Amino acid sequence: MELRHLRYFVAVAEELNFTRAAERLHIGQPPLSMQIRDLEEEIGTPLFERSKRRVALTEAGRRFFDHACEILARSQAATEDARRAGKGELGELRVGFTSSLPFTTMLSDVLHTYRRDFPQVSLSLREMFTVAQVEALQRGEIDVGFVRYRGLDVSAGIVTREIGRDPLRLVVNAAHPLAHRAEVSLAEFRDEGFIAYPTDVGTGLPAIVDELCRKAGFAARIVQRAREATTQIGLVASGLGVAVLPAPLECVRLPRVRYLRIGDEGAYLSLSVAHADRPPTPVLDTFLGVIGRIAAQSV
Question: Residue range 65-92: average pLDDT?
Fold first, then answer.
């Protein structure tokens, strides 16, 4: 029994006329009659009562009709489901992102556009530091990540592509003598205590700050470490030291905090998209396409 047998049967059952059913199916009446007889022989019971004046379903035919319609409908749904999955319109996507991303327009623009264009794809979002995202990509726990990566070491089997750059800001207490300045150089803060991320959090920012300070002729003196950027800002407000953070965090406004532009060359933090180094799934391919379009618009 094949799906075409079911389609032939349903056409005859709905028309109750072999001639009209054959016209509807665009086949000849004799081949249609033969297919229905073959179907009845395979099932082992008549599905139609035939006479010169009428065609009617038997009790077996009526019961078989309901099942045949259900099977054809499910077959069509399965075909459409597979077709849409192949085009990246259905499925699940697991996305990692760093904690500063919600303060940028990139993440919100990408997610808004993707959910609008591909509403049937389920998105699972995980906030993670960059190193944790790379490890999760290697283990297959996420499909794509928004990472803070600046061309340093990247693990084998992972592809990264820069999609944006955020300038760095020096976060100072409002009472600091240089708080009124629009732009400063890091060398002017060589004697200050710095508030920084712990070395084990897996963000690339500490290495960038160390490099910038080294180029400015000093090594940053770390007086406090905090895992969250907002905590660092709060500690600056308390007068414990200064911090270097991405510019999008300027939206965190506290009365005793000022954000100053850093004039040193290379004072920026890259935003990159990362995924496994293999052909992307259809869902990932469409997501990367949306990222590319949003990134191009923000240039």
Answer: 86
